[in-house]
Write a structure and sequence with these properties.
The complex is a heterodimer of chains A (about 300) and B (about 325). Chain A is mostly helical and about 300 residues long. Chain A has helices spanning about 10-30, 35-55, 70-110, 110-115, 120-155, 160-185, 190-215, 220-230, 235-245, 250-255, 270-295, and strands at about 5, 60, 65. In chain A, strands 2-3 form a two-stranded antiparallel ribbon. Chain B has a six-stranded mixed β-sheet with strand order 6-8-9-3-10-11, with helices on both faces. In chain B, strands 2-1-4-5 form a four-stranded antiparallel β-sheet, covered by helices on one side. Chain B has a four-stranded antiparallel β-sheet with strand order 13-14-12-15, with helices on one face. The longest helix of chain B is centred in the C-terminal third of the chain and has 22 residues, at about 310-330. Classes of the chains: A mainly alpha (about 300), B alpha/beta (about 325).
């Protein structure tokens, strides 16, 4: 047999190992049924929204026919709602992909032969994380962009900052998959998926509760949203994304009540919060690395 | 076990004082082990003896609580020490969504080795899977997955191969093929550490054997060293106390009705397992029978046999179990 060994001690070899695992994770995502479930749900959502938005223009209401301005405003709110659904589909899909890709391989024994190779465990973990990041980010960007185009074609509404919105939605997905990866290195793959989704939902609810608290000037209740957005930044990022999607006039028209409304964001994302999200991802990924390096396989 | 010249750096495997606890249970206790390059070493022991944990500690899959490992001259803590190491795990599972060829390609990349399509086909041919290269691993039978695992273990021209129960899912033909493969690897100078419950398999291919019991290394050596014992079974009647003493003078005596089995140590310097150097033992047995007849014992039958590896293993494991129960009663 003729084999040529590459120099394995160089940083380039380490990067190559990470990319090999990342490619494998992407291939896993493409070949497993999760991609089809995501595709079917996304196409369904796009089709339904295309039909729904097309009905908005010129719709008769009890107050008379909607003007194009009102349609745009309504479309902006509905787009937030639909994008929430879209981000949820991708977040859930990625969370349920992240669990099996690490925890499932540990449980089934697939990891045994791989980790016994001359690769650092950190390379295996970073490769899986990178693969999931690419998968989740690309998917949310494509699905999100398709959704925005549907709204543009049907009611001529285009979000003020579409790239920022898609970037924040991708970051939200990254936060969630990083958490799912950490949990799957500690508990069973299914339990990690369920816990991740549960925490995602709980944070969103806490964000709504916080918004209601802010609308009612109740600092204690408002703090619930703030604390949850720090502990798990998915809702904070989602609110930032909403702000980038929605029509700026919506806030003026809805006034103070906007804070209590779950599909309107009253402020854009601060640089400090963005920095915290990056630190949060680094911390959770580091914890994941520590847990994975110590784990008996 | 090894000569003074065998420095840790020159060995395929060098482990010193490996210890692992899982909660309150000590899975492996201070095990030191060496495998020389080009040597086939068998790892034997009952279920739960700590064999797989020991292997996993060697390969960096389980972190030892104490002790050190060197693989092919490099510290086991460095993943690069596994650059020329192949491993077939006891639990052999490969990505079910990949095909056999893709699994080999993946392991080639992870082993920092470039495998051409011909190389991969050659590997698959070696394990009888050349016609299944593009079939999904998820559709493979257990036996086929184990064969694929063997091919994976051979990726990257390994100098050390660790096989953990390599024939557990194979049919008799497959077992013979694996045995031949191990012998071929030895001929090529590849060191093999073989963990197997199939004692016949171990006896046929291994140069040395180490036996683990309750996480401790309880015996080890070449087959000649381990099997340097013989049994003489005599059917006797009218055995007096004097005759008993004569029997005991020859070795350890076990009695079942009129059958007396005497286990005698072979001090004849037998130079290999399986060779029957019975000359001196013959004389011993002749003298024993003559003495017994002289003491008035009626001798109805004499049967001599070599202690098999299975007998030796069972003897060691039973002795371990008995000493455990004695300890339990005493404590």
């Amino acid at each position: 047999m003729t084999t040529m060994t590459l120099r394995p001690s160089t940083p380039a070899a380490r990067v190559r190992s990470i990319l090999t695992i990342a490619r494998l994770t992407l291939r896993e995502a493409m070949r497993k049924r999760v991609i089809w479930a995501l595709l079917v749900l996304s196409v369904l959502l796009l089709t339904l929204t295309a039909w729904g938005f097309s009905q908005l223009s010129g719709m008769d209401t009890s107050m008379g026919r909607l003007t194009s301005g009102q349609s745009r405003l309504l479309a902006s709110q509905l787009l937030n709602l639909v994008m929430f659904g879209m981000s949820m589909i991708v977040a859930l899909g990625t969370a349920f992909l992240a669990g099996p890709t690490l925890g499932g391989e540990l449980e089934s024994g697939v990891s045994l032969a791989m980790v016994a190779r001359p690769v650092h465990r950190s390379s295996v973990l970073l490769g899986k994380w990178l693969g999931l990041v690419v998968f989740g980010s690309v998917y949310i960007c494509i699905a999100g962009l398709a959704q925005m185009l549907v709204v543009r074609v049907t009611v001529s509404y285009w979000p003020p900052s579409p790239i920022l919105a898609l970037g924040l939605l991708a970051l939200e997905t990254i936060v969630l998959l990083t958490l799912a990866l950490l949990l799957s290195s500690l508990i069973s793959p299914l339990a990690s998926g369920i816990t991740t989704v549960g925490l995602f939902g709980a944070t969103w609810v806490a964000g709504v509760v916080g918004g209601i608290g802010a609308a009612l000037d109740n600092d204690g209740v408002a703090r619930v949203g703030t604390i949850s957005a720090i502990l798990l930044p998915t809702d904070g990022l989602w609110r930032g994304a909403m702000h980038a999607i929605q029509d700026p006039t919506a806030l003026i028209q809805m006034d103070a009540a906007a804070e209590g409304f779950p599909f309107i964001s009253s402020s854009s994302l601060s640089a400090a919060y963005f920095a915290w999200v990056v630190i949060w991802i680094v911390i959770v990924l580091t914890l994941c690395l520590v847990s994975f390096r110590r784990r008996a396989i | 076990m090894s000569s003074v010249a065998d420095s840790p750096g020159s060995l395929a495997v060098w482990c010193n004082g490996l210890t692992k606890r899982f909660g309150r249970r000590e899975a492996v206790h201070s095990v030191s082990l060496e495998v020389r390059r080009g040597e086939v070493v068998g790892l034997l022991g009952a279920n739960g003896a700590g064999k797989t944990t020991l292997i996993k500690m060697m390969l960096g899959l389980v972190r030892p609580d104490a002790g050190e490992v060197m693989l092919l001259g490099q510290p086991g803590t460095d993943p690069l020490s596994r650059l020329r190491v192949g491993y077939l795990p006891e639990l052999f599972r490969y990505q079910p969504w990949l095909n056999a060829d893709e699994v080999l390609k993946l392991h080639g990349r992870l082993a920092h080795t470039q495998l051409s399509a011909d190389d991969r086909l050659e590997l698959l041919s070696m394990v009888g899977l050349h016609d299944r290269a593009v079939d999904r691993v998820g559709d493979f039978s257990k036996g086929m997955q184990q064969r694929l695992g063997l091919a994976v273990a051979l990726v990257g021209d390994p100098e050390l191969i660790v096989l953990d129960e390599p024939t557990s899912a194979l049919d008799p033909l497959g077992r013979v093929e694996v045995r031949d493969l191990v012998l071929k690897l030895r001929d090529r100078g590849v060191a093999v550490l073989l963990n197997s419950h199939l004692i016949g398999e171990v006896e046929r291919v291994c140069d040395r054997v180490v036996i683990l019991d309750h996480g401790r290394l309880v015996a080890g050596g070449t087959l000649a060293e381990l099997l340097g014992q013989r049994k003489v079974t005599l059917r006797l009647n009218n055995v007096t106390e004097q005759a008993h003493e004569r029997l005991r003078a020859s070795g350890v005596v076990e009695r079942e009705k009129d059958r007396y089995t005497v286990t005698v140590s072979d001090g004849s310097g037998d130079d290999g397992a399986g060779t029957d150097n019975f000359d001196s033992a013959d004389a011993d047995v002749s003298r024993l029978v003559a003495d017994l007849v002289g003491l008035g014992v009626h001798v109805y039958g004499v049967e001599r046999s070599r202690i098999s590896l299975e007998d030796r293993l069972l003897g060691i494991l039973r002795a371990g179990a008995e000493s455990d129960s004695t300890r339990d009663v005493g404590s």
